[in-house]
Amino acid sequence: MPPAIHTVLGPLAPDRLGVCDAHDHLFFRSRQLPGQELDDVAAAEAELRAFRAAGGAAVVQWSPYGTGRRADALPDLARGTGTHIVAATGLHQAAHYDAELLARVMPRLAEVFVTELTEAVRGTGERPVTAGLIKVAGAFHGLDAHARHTMTAAAEAHHATGAPIAVHHELGTGVLDVLDLLCGRLEVAPGSVILGHLNRSPDEWGHREAAKSGAFLAFDGPSRANHATDWRMLDCVAALVEGGFGGQVLLGGDTTTAAARSVDGGGPGMPYLTRVLRPRLVERLGEEAAHAVFTANPARAFAW
Prior knowledge:
The protein is of the alpha/beta class. It is built from 10 helices and 13 strands. The chain has helices at 41-53, 74-81, 99-105, 109-118, 145-161, 175-185, 204-211, 230-245, 271-285, 287-301; strands at 5-7, 10-12, 20-24, 58-61, 84-86, 88-90, 121-122, 128-129, 133-137, 165-168, 193-195, 216-220, 249-252. A 6-stranded parallel sheet has the order 6-9-10-11-12-13. The protein has a 3-stranded parallel sheet with strand order 3-4-5. A two-stranded antiparallel ribbon has the order 1-2. The longest helix is centred in the middle third of the chain and has 17 residues, at 145-161. It is globular.
């Protein structure tokens, strides 16, 4: 069977993915963000429609196990808006969960991941949906015991299925430690690893060293006052493209709270990627580079 993008409506040929928001959230719930839950189906639909109207075609939701990912709602949203949606299995940092959930799931993580990749993710309703990637997370400037355990389970699930592993890097740090573990000791092919939040640490040397591994590099969460601003992010992307690593760069919106949606909050939301960032990327680096970042690269990064 040829590689496919595993969407919530089934396998999709990579060349049909289209312009892709490579890291975002339609639904997300965490004890770290009380009162800021993304759990409104109507708002999620409105955000997807706004993204489609701005030229978007696909969204990869990185909300993993236990974070209110609403797997039950995703198929109808995909059908209703004409948007390809990819769901995630995996596990976030320990701080996002209560102790009871972790005690229940940690001893059988690899089994959970494989089941959700090959059978079904269950949301808050009855309808199941199959996941298309494994989301895990590092710690600040390194890897704690939770991260190592979770990444080891993710590698086991990857070897059993071929699914890509997407990594949350706390404030963009610990990237080389993650590569040493996943691609070194755990023998995950670098092309199956997506390194997230690199915009939060605009270190061009670190980005270049990570790119040499062959992994994909995701810049996400634009226009956040407490992160590197858009102009700095574009500098980092340009440095990678001009250094010959343009085939490994991804962009995403990483909308994690209702206030960050374009349709009912302060934004910038999903449409910002295609309405603002893509034209700026075209102006800076040309249409070929923009096509790679928004279309060709995600078609390869999420295919398995």
